[in-house]
Amino acid sequence: MSAASFGLAVLYVAVSLSVIMAGAWLVWRETRNSGWVDMVWTFGLGAVGAAAAFSPLLILGDLNARQSLILVLVAAWAARLGTHIAQRTAGITDDPRYAKLLQGWGPDAPRQMFWLLQKQALVSIPLALAIVLAVWNPTPDLRAQDLLAALVLLVAIGGEALADYQLKRFRAAPANHGRICDVGLWRYSRHPNYFFQWLGWIAYALLAIDFSGAYLWGWLALGAPACMYWLLVYVTGIPPLEEHMLERRGASFRAYQARTSAFFPAPPRREPHHHVSTGDA
Q1: 92-98 long-range contacts, Cβ below 8 Å, gap at least 24?
Q2: Cα–Cα distances in Å, from 254 out to 185, 195, 270?
Q3: Contact call for residues 127 and 224 (beta carbons, < 8 A)
Q4: Does an H or E element contain 257, and which?
Q5: pLDDT band for position 278 (50/70/90)?
Q6: What span, in angstroms and rounded, lies between the C-alpha atoms of 241 and 142?
Q7: Interhelix angle 96-105/238-249, nearest 10 degrees
Q8: Residue predicted with more confidence, 55 or 59
Q9: Is 268 contained in some domain?
Q10: Any residues with CB less than 8 A from the CB of 206 and at least 6 apart, and which?
Q11: Domain range for residue 221?
């Protein structure tokens, strides 16, 4: 990959994501349910990645084994997560993380929301670029490293799906109404779904990096897990969600915070046991 081709890749990714998030804004304006924003982002990012994986077929007339593998993995990730978010959003009136922002913006909410979603497009560029960099890794054959990457992403997809299922099942039980979900994976992390979402982006770095030094561009793919960690832990993930849960559950959620790791799964700390409902409320 040359500097010129990398520049074109950045341009393709940036323009595509900007258009996708403009579409997400239009969907929000029509439905007033901000939960659809994350669905559009997921399917949109998956489409950008899949198009990148498919591009060698148009340019070179063929896909190698790695490119085919990436196409399948990107499609599997987007289909699972996008479908889950769509099902969740269909059952709510709004996403509490966005709803609080919209309330604070008042009459200026449409303009502020548009620019917020464009900022999301901007910070998503490293994610899509990691897929592009993995696709254009020139190593001809599949390596053990690529198979490890596929395993990591499959574990990430499965782990996130399991966390989502456990939370949904917990909430569906009438006896758990008003409680915090601290069973299954939620016993070891307050946000196991976020952890597995982050883990999946490590796979693209593994697919892109060539430890022999023949493809130095591949190291830039490390920007994807770094960016996703920053977003989930410090920006759009944990902080607004936990603020919302503290407002709703108060002392119960503080007790859950005290005994349970925020992100990386770990054995619970010794605290009085409370059953409680977290998660992506």
Answers
A1: 92/33, 92/35, 93/33, 94/32, 94/33, 94/34, 94/35, 95/33, 95/34, 95/35, 95/37, 95/38, 96/240, 96/241, 96/244, 96/281, 97/34, 97/236, 97/240, 97/241, 97/244, 98/34, 98/35, 98/37
A2: 18, 20, 14
A3: yes
A4: helix 251-259
A5: very low
A6: 40
A7: 90
A8: 55
A9: no
A10: 145, 146, 148, 149, 152
A11: 3-259
pLDDT tens digits for 152-178?
Answer: 999 999 999 999 999 999 999 999 998
Instruction: Record the tokens describing residue 93, joined without a space.
Output: 């009136």
Unique residue bearing structure tokens 């994501």: 17
Counted domains in the chain: 1
- Determine the pLDDT at residue 281: 42
Q: Is residue 155 part of a domain?
A: yes
Q: Considering the domain boundaries, does residue 152 fall inside one? A: yes
Q: Say which residues have a Cβ less than 8 Å from residue 232's Cβ, sequence separation at least 6.
A: 191, 194, 197, 198, 238, 263
Within a domain: residue 153?
yes
- On whether the CB atoms of residues 70 and 147 are closer than 8 A, the answer is no
